[in-house]
Automatic annotation (TrEMBL):
It comes from Noviherbaspirillum saxi. GO terms for molecular function: hydrolase activity, acting on carbon-nitrogen (but not peptide) bonds. The lineage of its organism: Bacteria, Pseudomonadati, Pseudomonadota, Betaproteobacteria, Burkholderiales. One of its GO terms (biological process) is carbohydrate metabolic process. Gene3D superfamilies: 3.40.50.880, Glycoside hydrolase/deacetylase. It comes from the Bacteria. Residues 292-395 form the NodB homology domain. InterPro entries: Class_I_gatase-like (IPR029062), Glyco_hydro/deAcase_b/a-brl (IPR011330), NODB_dom (IPR002509). This is NodB homology domain-containing protein.
Length: 594
């Protein structure tokens, strides 16, 4: 025993130290399989394929036009990289990240060297039709990309209405962008491709974030950690030319991609409380057909949800019993006095209208000071509207989809307004019943479209805001018959979803600003510092961790004695949520170990 301890303890200490410095150390997992704690590497190799260069020359093209965007990226980021022009040079690198920029033609030697690089632990970032032709330029199919974990299904027709890359929020390879961010794509001669992968981080869509049914499970950006072995892959299903005219937004995607491929963990402040993946608000514009609100309300009570009703006060005051019940069980907000938009109206007239709507609401609901939500008729408002809403006590309003390029709440920029008193703007992020009715859908089709909009919002980590209208919600309407199927889908994903009223989302978005997050990397650990500013307790604080190793979530321990240990929940194979529950104002320190 003394001999065993005398040898074993120093060996264990040595391995622990060397692992913290970057060694890949094999581990025996619970099921007996060998896995690796893979090391990160600063090596970034830009591979300028000679076969691809020759192929472009035969068709009158210039491969440099697809290499230059990468050189510009590295120059902009002041990032060290190595440009390699011969496959044999790849032998110099034991690991790192190999960038294959639209390397459409690859010889047998190039393929073999890339495979060898991956087997040594190197990761790959490939773009567009990489490897689809052989060294002579002849069509070879998609086999090379499939060896990287990418399943190709073809090309997107040039006539398709696809002009944006829409990214997921809190994804390991896109987390610098908020959920649902629109990244404009330039029209180029290189067609967009259709790809599937283990994980999707972005999709090709139109401005309204609608995608053709046959492409809904495909990705413009896919990523995977190929098993067995330590290599990771990210694939962009587009050529570099699509971002060349507006490069900076894409640079942030590349930043995150390289970090993930290099196995550098990252922690970001979560968009939603308590580790929830997304938020959902369902609201009714309650105007003509006001009594139909009772049909909608009964469905919301059945799922124990406090929905939001924006009331057109000139109509609502004629149904005091209905309005009183809505106010008792749900959140009630203003939908103005009459159904005219505010946009472009003189500020004095807008202010008069707001006074009228408050007076009319007070004839039924005396405590109007508690009503702090608003939605403009026809989604018509302007900067003057927002300033006057804040002046009149309104603290959130549901706006149009064009208000922000992302699918998260935003803070209205009003002068001399403290953050805790900010006006929060909630963009409508799902097609409403008017959009769907214009397509002449039946009940089953309407349910399907509602569910697909919802699923996309959850997958993106976004705010889903569904707006319906009272005049379209009578008991025999298509919308009313389609809603139960939609609500059933919400229940199926309830563990991932925060189902909240509009006011609750707005309140959280203000409270979230009190959370400050910073990290310092230390080998296989991150030092996580949390600060809660202000004077109030913060409930629901969470952060999202991008894992350096597929599978197991990290271990999180407080650094200071007496601090409660947070809860760690695995979100998927590449992310985990750390939930702190209730935090009093102050500073907190944790050690996150992978």
């Amino acid at each position: 025993m003394m001999v065993i301890l005398g040898v074993g303890v120093p060996v264990l200490m040595y391995l622990t130290v060397m692992q913290s410095l970057g060694w890949r150390v094999p581990l025996i997992t619970m099921n007996g399989a060998i896995s690796f704690v893979a090391s990160s590497s600063e090596n970034v190799i830009l591979y300028a394929s000679p076969s691809t260069k020759a192929y472009f020359g035969t068709i009158g093209g210039n491969y440099d036009t697809l290499l230059v965007p990468w050189r510009d990226y590295f120059a902009n980021r002041k990032r060290t990289y190595k440009e390699v022009r011969e496959p044999g040079q790849l032998k110099e690198f034991k690991n790192g990240v190999l960038v294959l920029p639209s390397a459409i033609a690859l010889s047998d030697e190039e393929r073999a060297e890339i495979l060898s690089f991956r087997q040594k632990g190197g990761s790959v970032l490939a773009t567009w039709a990489t490897g689809s032709r052989n060294g002579k330029g002849d069509w070879a199919g998609w086999e090379f990309l499939e060896t990287l974990g990418v399943k190709m299904t073809g090309e997107i027709p040039r006539a398709a209405e696809v002009s944006y890359l829409i990214v997921n929020g809190e994804s390991p390879v896109t987390y610098k962008h908020p959920a649902g961010q629109r990244l404009p794509l330039s029209k180029t001669s290189e067609t967009l491709l259709r790809a599937k992968g283990e994980m999707v981080a972005g999709r090709f869509m139109n401005w309204a974030r609608i995608v053709e049914p046959e492409r809904r499970d495909e990705g413009a950006i896919v990523y995977t950690e190929t098993a067995p072995g330590p290599s990771r892959t990210t694939f962009y299903a587009f050529a570099e030319s699509v971002w060349e005219s507006r490069p900076l937004m894409m640079y942030e995607v590349i930043d995150n991609t390289l970090q993930w491929l290099q196995r550098e963990p990252a922690i970001v402040r979560a968009a939603w409380p308590n580790g929830k993946r997304a938020a959902q608000v369902i609201e009714m514009d309650t105007e003509d057909g006001f009594p139909n609100a009772e049909v909608f309300a009964s469905m919301m009570r059945a799922i124990d949800y406090r929905a939001t009703f924006y009331v057109l006060t000139s109509v609502g005051r004629r149904y005091p019993e209905v309005l009183t019940r809505l106010h008792r069980d749900f959140e009630v907000g203003y939908h103005a006095d009459v159904h005219d938009g505010f946009k472009g109206q003189p500020p004095k007239l807008q202010e008069q209208r707001m006074q009228i709507m408050r007076t009319e609401m007070a004839t039924v609901i005396p405590d109007v000071d508690t009503i702090t939500g608003f939605r403009a008729p026809l989604e018509g408002y302007d900067a003057a509207t927002e300033a006057l809403l804040h002046k009149s006590g309104i603290r959130h309003h549901a706006a149009d989809p064009s208000r922000t390029e992302a699918r998260l709440p935003i803070v209205s920029k009003l002068p001399d307004v403290e953050p805790d008193d900010a006006l929060i703007v909630l963009p409508r992020t799902q097609r409403d019943d008017i959009n769907l009715a214009s397509q002449n859908l039946n009940v089953e089709q309407t349910t399907k479209e509602l569910i697909e909009d919802f699923d996309l919002a959850v997958d993106q980590g976004a705010l889903g805001l569904l707006s319906v209208h009272s005049q379209n919600f009578h008991a025999d309407s298509v919308l009313a018959k389609a809603m139960p199927g939609y609500l059933e889908r919400l229940k199926q994903r309830k563990d991932q979803l925060w189902l909240a009223s509009a006011g609750q989302v707005a309140d959280w978005w203000r409270e979230r600003e009190h959370l400050r997050v910073s990290t310092v990397s230390s080998g296989k650990r991150l030092e996580l510092d949390i600060t809660v500013v202000g004077k109030k307790r913060l409930n629901g604080a969470s952060v999202i961790v991008m894992l350096p190793q597929k599978g197991p979530p990290p271990t999180v321990q407080p650094v200071k004695t007496g601090l409660a240990k947070p809860t760690v929940v695995k979100l998927d194979e590449y992310r985990a949520a750390i939930m702190f529950g209730a935090l009093e104002p102050g500073d907190y320190a944790y050690q996150v170990t992978f």
